[in-house]
Write a structure and sequence with these properties.
Layout lengths: L1 E5 L4 H12 L3 E6 L7 H12 L7 E5 L7 H4 L5 E4 L14 H22 L3 E7 L22 H20 L3 E6 L2 E2 L8 H11 L3 E4 L5 E6 H13 L6 E5 L3 E4 H12 L5 E4 L14 H6 L8 H13 L1
Parallel strand pairs: 1-2, 1-4, 2-3, 4-5, 5-6, 6-10, 7-9, 8-12
Antiparallel strand pairs: 9-11
Helix pairs in contact: 1-2, 1-7, 4-5, 6-8, 6-10, 8-10
Length: 314
């Protein structure tokens, strides 16, 4: 099968490319290398996939979805895994919003138009638990009212609504996956576990936003990849939404404790105020994903964090 992965040089996208190639797919790997973090890091992510067995089935394409000829990019493609976007909550405020608007909303709308024109069998869209904000209950259901607390979350929700709009009007067969705090090898440098474990390895203070009591549902990258593969293959109605939640709902303080145990010593903390837009708690029900996708997470927090630490130490 020929597939397209957008954001292919990113943290999750590069792992997905490897998994698709490992199962025998032909992969068109697209990235525009935004300057959100160092391009060399993304090049290293993609190099790992390009160096794996079956890499001759990877076609690398440097392209910006906002301006590229997308019908040509989708030529021959059966399934699109749309992971490209501008990530992160903190930079989405003020003047930073324009980048989030164009990369997360405009690019998704253009891709949906291209899927409509080419008759692509499936588009899997990477959304975020940020659409929930401080949810009305935990574990949160996909039917609960989304109330994003950041412009980033607003753009991901808008892209979800675009998926629904194109499904309702044109039958474009999308699936929306709401990721809950993904971690593991190749995690972005700005993300908490990367910064935490790096601080521990180097003996430097870890900048901790808030008092450490905030709770996150941490999801290992390998489990997220498995959810994408399942969503690409499953027979579900267009624009169905699924939580991809890892089963490791712990406080930041507890996660720091796991890191200290793995490192064999304490990590100094640089305590800071909570960041605007951060939800106090996240945690999603995966009953729907288990029932309709046949998916459930298999990697616990300690094992996943150990894998990330081993990668950082290498």
């Amino acid at each position: 099968m020929q597939v397209l992965v957008t954001g292919a040089a990113g943290f999750i996208g590069s792992h997905l490319v490897e998994a698709l190639v490992a199962r025998g797919d032909v992969v068109r790997a697209v990235d525009c290398f935004t300057p959100y973090y160092d391009r060399a890091v993304k090049e290293a992510n993609l190099a790992a996939a390009l160096g794996a067995p079956g890499a001759e089935r990877i076609e690398r394409v440097d392209a910006d979805l906002r301006v590229a000829d997308l019908p040509a990019l989708l030529d021959g493609v059966e399934v699109v895994y749309h992971l490209a976007g501008q990530p992160g909550v903190r930079l989405s405020w003020a003047d930073g919003f324009a980048e989030y608007d164009s990369h997360n909303i405009l690019a998704t709308q253009r891709l949906l138009e291209a899927c409509r024109a080419t008759g692509t069998r499936r588009l899997v869209f990477a959304s975020s638990s940020s659409v929930y904000g401080n949810a009305e209950r935990y574990p949160t259901l996909e039917t609960d009212t989304p109330r994003p607390r950041s412009p980033y979350g607003v753009t991901k929700l808008a892209a979800e609504f675009l998926c629904r709009t194109y499904a309702d009007n044109w039958g474009v067969p999308s699936v929306v996956l709401r990721y809950f705090t993904v971690y593991g090898p190749r995690q972005r440098p700005d993300m908490a576990f990367h910064r935490l474990l790096t601080a521990g390895v180097r003996g430097e203070p870890f900048p901790m936003y808030g008092d450490g009591s905030q709770v996150r549902e941490f999801t290992y990258v390998g489990d997220v990849v498995a959810a994408n593969l399942a969503a690409g293959d499953a027979d579900v109605a267009p624009a169905e939404v699924f939580n991809v939640s890892g089963g490791s709902a712990v406080s930041l303080a507890e996660a720091i404790g796991v890191a200290e145990d793995l490192l064999g010593g304490p990590i100094a903390l640089d305590r800071r105020d909570a960041a605007p837009g951060d939800a106090y708690r996240t945690g999603g029900s995966i009953d729907k994903a288990r029932s309709l996708l046949g998916w459930a997470p298999v990697t616990g927090l300690r094992d996943g964090m150990a894998a990330e630490l081993a990668w950082l130490q290498r």
